[in-house]
Amino acid sequence: MALSRLPKTFGLEELTKGYFPHLFNRPENQEYVGEYPDVSHYSPSTMSSAERERFLKWYEEKRTEIFDFQKEMLVYCRSDVDILRRCCMEFRAQFLNVSGVDPFTYVTIASACMAAYRSSHIQEDILAMVPVNGYVNKTCYSRDGVRWLEYISSKEGIYIRHSLNGFGEQLIEGNPVDGFCVETNTIYQYQGCFYHGCAKCFERNIINPVSGISMNNLLLKSDENVKNLRLLGYTVIEMWEHDFILLKKTEEFIRIMEGHEIVDRLNPRDAFFGGRTNAVKLYFEGQAKYIDFTSLYPWVNKYCEYPIGHPEIITEDFTDIEEYFGVVKCKVIPPRSLFHPVLPYRSHGKLMFPLCRSCTDTLQQSVCTHNDDHRALTGTWVSEELKKAKSMGYKIAKIYEVYHFSKRSADLFKSYIDLFLRLKQESSGWPTECVTEETKKAYIESYAKREGIDLNAECIQVNPGRRSVAKLALNSFWGRWGMSLNKNQLSFVSSLTEFNKILSDSTIKVKDIFLPSPVAAALMWCKEERFVPQDTSTNVFLAAFTTCYARLKLYDELERLGRSVLYFDTDSIIYQTDGQNDPPTGNFLGDFTDELDGRIITSFVSGGPKNYAYNLSDGTSNCKIKGFSLNFKNSLILNYETVKELVCSMDKAAVKTVLNPRKIIVEKKKRKLINKEEARKYQLINDKRVIQSDFSTLPYGF
Predict the structure, then answer these.
(1) Measured between alpha carbons, how far is 180 from 187 in angstroms, rounded to an integer?
(2) Are 268 and 541 in contact (CB under 8 A)?
(3) Can you give the pTM of this predicted structure?
(4) Could you tell me which residue ranges the DNA-directed DNA polymerase family B mitochondria/virus domain spans (predicted)?
(5) Residue 633 above 80 pLDDT?
(6) Phi, psi of 111 (to 5 degrees)
(7) What residues contact residue 61 under an 8 Å CB cut-off, 6+ apart?
(8) pLDDT grade, residue 277 (50/70/90)?
């Protein structure tokens, strides 16, 4: 949030961020006293149109006064610091008062919200601490181990029993072995370097974080196991993981294993997808409306069912998908003519919603001719999204694995959401229609009936600071459950000993090294996957269910509106209105609201996701393009007309260039802030659907 917006946000409107001629701040002007510097020194073209108007009005009032550079710079800097200080203290006081948690003891707002939830709202023995390396450490088979066994089986023409065929792993003296061939009385053991203490890959004294045993003792244990099996009369063949990595790159291995389907174990994080965003109609003239959900994610948190406890892991004897509640790894065959597909699919670094895998992976813009095998999507999805997909014509061809939760709850986050929702509503003041005691009473009663929250009439008054805190707490809470646990770290060292210690640590992966100064080195690193420490405040299942329910809520309206949809983004829809298809609006959680306050869109254009412009019935227009600051100068280059020109030309090579002569950037390797000219190029990038000649689009595989 810009510093200039903080005072209004926190109800400190007596504070106002002023203007300063930054381009006048040069060595020769440090002692300047005289007329106000020319307007160009304030760079008004980089302001928004509205801010530029306010500035020009202010400048006209000030230009005849005396400008003392040193005095004005001191006043400006003190004002900025004072605004930031007072707004921060107001935020801290409001958050402390509401939650009892000091937000400044946490790095992010999501962490502070999680602390507020854990301190007063979490239920005992309900939420699971998901193992950072997954549940398959305890109920696992190695995918590479199975690939090696399948390779040996195909190469030598023998049958090897393993975890993915027959009745699972063979038991020898009560203990399972990776592979067993009855014909040759041979045991095959795949030795994962991490789990068996490989002497080539790990130092001897490192403690394995999963087993709690040193790598040296793990190796001794593995060697002892192999020795005992041989004493029992079996032939034992070993394959170490580091040797298999080389083997699977050979031409012979690639040739033999072509066509073998060996699917990875289910990874719950693969079911965690983001919001749904896309342009459906690139250019439209007519009447359209822009609606969005009121607090979509808080609605999900309050009203939807979440899994609780640890899952039951199912790898065989699957039943109907309707019987499961959790996450499912499976292969599905989409229908061929669903205008708004249901299931998300990752391709080309983007979240797609296709009807054909092959068309999507190749970005095929022509009619799909692939068979079902080539169309099928293999992935991991939340069970509730799969159930919706099934009802829309998707066929589940094969289930590989299910994490099923026998217990569920719709009350996990209810008290937390209700607390901050009550504060937000009370701090918003009375609705405009509440002008009498009767209408105020009716408002309180209707809110209690709909949301189950008793508003306090004495507390209903406009309080921007408290409302901002409540809104932040409502919207910033859920994301902490899905946080990535292996973020890049940066370490600075000033001696060769420190440098070598990090570089030789086999528990971390060094990703970059640079020299920010002559006396220090910086190393960017992250933990090796198997050494990531356990976290106590994440649960990827809760995050995956949250975004799934949000997509389903949006999908319900996409399904109803059908081809009237022009554009959608997570919790909002722009659609062609005919006066009969408008959804009801309201002010409760999950209700639609009119983003344009009754105004009608008369023409709309979009160059792709996060990239659109429209004209309104009152003669105004709006343009939003992610990654571009559409200030006064840039909006002369990028606006409704120029975006329309590019879209209607359908020329993907056409470019509009926006220059920022003084972009503040961070030179990470030098640890410096610098001003640098930046040129950003805008062009059509719309490859998430198949574009038709009339500017409509179809999903891949339609």
Answers:
(1) 5
(2) yes
(3) 0.85
(4) 3-166, 269-428
(5) yes
(6) -65, -40
(7) none
(8) very high
